[in-house]
Design goal:
Length: 696
């Protein structure tokens, strides 16, 4: 007898051995239920074929054709090439990572059915690393009759195919198992919000058939998706309400301030603060002067000067003999802040330290000791290091830079960490504006300060859009700006989910630029380099030993190289507006600089991509950009989960789904008073591992 239930550990499911189990754990799946609630971030339509003559570059298609040519070749490294035709045109296939056997299987005369994003290469179509099936045309396999779900794999090495199989196996248990869903389903029904049960919704979402409304599903507007989206929003709203209630019962240190404490700081700063910066520092000081723990969000466009605001808040703590910590998403950013703080606080008598993955064991021991004794007043570090148990004598302020995560999980983690009834004040820095609807609901427990003014002398970055075919001209431009003593980024973007292709693109871009110009010193940084290699390249760039930094999107958020004046972005049509704006913000940070951004695109621009490029050309204002972004996204385009406002949501997208917030709020108010249902929801949407309710 099989007694697997949805609460069973995932290894009870067929196909999950120790190796797969540990891969699944990396994406938060430890129980059967977790797998069911890992929801597709998009779908591939492999239920139909497209003729080669109808292909559009930049978009994914399923194509079938006869193999007419195939070979291994050496464009610097071993690669594989094949050419197919379906009678309406030709398509080239390229593989850069392949086995001998794979290459052999592309036999002339056989047929291949493939799915991949089409690229334009000169006037030919090509596709890199498609998923494919080879067959003899006499035995043509039938087309799929369901859409193919695509899941976020995060850091896990599991394949889409394997994950689909496992989720499929989990779905088979769903009818016989208890999801404890009855009460929640009933509430949805009684409030007229959805007739679908959670089980029905899950089945459709993981396995939508062509008879379902395919367009609606691809646009995340299907009733089954709505059912799940609203449930996830409810859970987050409840989570915020519970954590707010808990925080209200806790106390923070009252931190005093007076004008004198900034005297020597102001003298040491190489610039004077903008009015906006001064105002925001005062708002923060006002909050910290109360015993209610602060939870404040500082929102300021890229380059608006958020770091110095954080410094002001931390200095206020230090002058009260209290400790504070600044948490950064990356080591490079932590080091950059540490350097700045050391300059700005040069004439203060304050002990500042940095703690990252690079810190040597010997230093770590000393720092640990000095944190416990209270000697170190300001600590700058990476998230990951801080989470590994750092003990401080009187931590009173936590600043989180480039905050990407405001989720319920993070809120509860913070609460669980503080054993006593004392909570540090919390300050979050972000460049992403939060729309009003969200500020009133999901972010209701945060106060917001806006830095709505740029430092003086900051010229807008002039943005132009160019077809990839003309990129030769850019090398001349690189030579000019570098001979004038400025520097440039050359950014190679993600090629459809494949980090290695991304790296490959960056490597060939570097070779190409170096070949075209003997004068330019070109550096390269990407995700395949180890930390110290990465750091040394970035350091060389910062010091001006490199003119052009070729990079992938791994280049750090918040990276500040005041001398950089040109940003070139390849395949810009594939990136979202907010991301483009963030990247553009890496240049033009020096005063009175004429900075430029060039957006390169492949082939013909689609309507939405065109709208994005136009927005980039016409405005430098991050708030406007995000408004336009929302409008474009409102028209049905899906850009993945990157822009869910940092909530790490499984299916809801706070921008796309803001329309459902009212319904969610209504149900949240009903369900919050039922501890059983709250627990079920938290387990489902936040995770089995967390005992969040214990934090209540
Ligand atoms: P972000 O808001 O993107 O984090 P940073 O804090 O990195 O911005 O600041 C961007 C650049 O502007 C830095 O080089 C910083 O030293 C500089 N800066 C910050 N405030 C001012 C100011 N008031 N006047 C002139 N330059 C400033
Ligand atoms: Mg910053």
């Amino acid at each position: 007898m099989n007694n697997t239930s949805l609460n069973s550990p995932i290894e009870k499911i067929k196909g999950v051995g120790p190796k797969i189990k540990s891969q699944l754990e990396k994406i938060g799946i430890t129980h059967v239920e977790d797998a069911l609630f890992l929801l597709p971030k998009s779908y591939e339509n492999r239920t139909k074929l497209t003729q080669i003559k109808d292909l559009i570059p930049g978009q994914p298609f399923q194509i079938e054709g006869e193999i007419i040519e195939s070979k291994i070749y050496y464009p610097g490294r071993r690669a594989f090439y094949a050419k197919i035709t379906d009678g309406t045109g030709f398509l080239q296939i390229r593989l850069f990572f392949f086995s001998q056997q794979q290459a052999k299987s592309f036999e002339k005369g056989l047929s291949v059915r493939l799915y991949g994003v089409i690229r334009n290469s000169g006037n030919k179509y090509e596709v890199f690393h498609p998923s494919y099936k080879i067959f003899n045309s006499k035995f043509r396999p039938p087309l799929d009759n369901t859409l193919t779900p695509v899941y976020s794999l995060g850091a896990s090495k599991i394949t889409q195919y394997r994950l689909r199989t496992i989720i499929h196996n989990c779905l088979e248990k769903i009818d016989e198992s208890n999801l404890n869903e009855k009460e929640i389903d009933k509430t949805f029904l009684s409030q007229n919000i959805s007739k679908l049960s959670i089980k029905e919704a899950l089945k459709i979402i993981h396995n939508p058939s062509v008879s379902d409304d395919v367009l609606k599903i691809k646009q995340f507007e299907h009733p089954a998706q709505k059912r799940l989206i609203i449930e996830e929003l409810i859970t987050n709203l409840i989570g915020v309400k519970i954590s707010t209630k808990k925080i209200d019962k806790m106390k923070a240190k009252v931190i005093n301030n007076n004008k004198e404490i900034f005297n020597s700081f102001y003298k040491a700063l190489p610039f004077s603060l903008t009015n906006a910066q001064e105002r925001v520092i005062k708002e923060i000081q006002g909050d910290m002067n109360k015993s209610r723990p602060m939870r404040r969000l500082v929102q300021g466009d890229v380059g608006s000067g958020k770091t110095v605001v954080a410094a002001g808040a931390m200095l206020t703590c230090a002058k009260n003999n209290l400790q504070s910590v600044l948490l950064c998403p990356t080591e490079v950013l932590a080091e950059q802040h540490f350097k700045n703080f050391s300059i700005w606080f040069a004439s203060e008598n304050i002990n500042i330290e940095i703690l990252t993955g690079k810190t040597k064991k010997k230093d770590w021991e000393r720092i640990d000791y000095d944190l416990r004794s209270g000697k170190i007043k300001i600590l700058i570090g990476t998230h990951s290091v801080f989470q590994k148990r750092v003990s401080m004598k009187n931590l009173s302020l936590v600043v989180v830079d480039e905050q990407q995560r405001f989720g319920v999980k993070q809120r509860f983690e913070m609460l669980q960490k503080s054993k006593e009834a004392v909570l540090p004040h919390q300050l979050f820095m972000t460049a992403t504006p939060i729309p009003r609807t969200l500020a009133m609901t999901i972010f209701a427990d945060l106060s917001v300060s806006k830095i709505d003014e740029m430092p003086p002398g900051r010229n807008p970055v002039i943005t132009s859009v160019m077809s990839n075919d003309k990129k030769d001209e850019l090398v001349d431009r690189l030579e000019v700006i570098c001979s004038e003593g400025n520097q440039a980024f050359w950014l190679c973007t993600m090629i459809e989910e494949s980090e290695s292709l991304d790296v490959q693109a960056a490597e060939s871009a570097k070779e190409w630029i170096s070949k075209k110009s003997k004068n330019l010193k070109v550096g390269l940084v990407h995700s395949k380099l180890n930390k110290s290699q990465k750091d040394s390249v970035i350091e060389n760039f910062r010091e001006g030993k490199i003119d052009v930094l070729v990079c992938t999107t791994v280049i750090e958020v918040g990276m500040d190289v005041p001398n950089a004046s040109l940003m070139i972005i390849e395949n810009a049509e594939r990136l979202g507006l907010s991301q483009l704006h963030q990247l553009r913000g890496r240049v033009g940070r020096g005063p009175n600089m004429n900075a430029h951004c060039v957006l390169l695109y492949q082939g013909k621009l689609g309507e939405i991509a065109e709208a994005r490029m136009t927005a980039m050309k016409e405005t430098n204002d991050g708030f406007k950009i995000s408004e336009i972004d929302m409008k474009i996204r409102g028209s049905g385009e899906i850009l993945g989960t990157k822009q869910s406002g940092g909530m790490e949501l499984k299916i809801a997208d706070l921008m796309r789904d803001a329309q459902y917030l009212n319904s969610a709020e209504k149900l949240a108010n009903i369900l919050i008073s039922r501890p059983n249902e709250v627990e079920i929801l938290m387990k489902r949407w936040v995770g089995h591992k967390q005992n969040l309710i214990a934090a209540q």
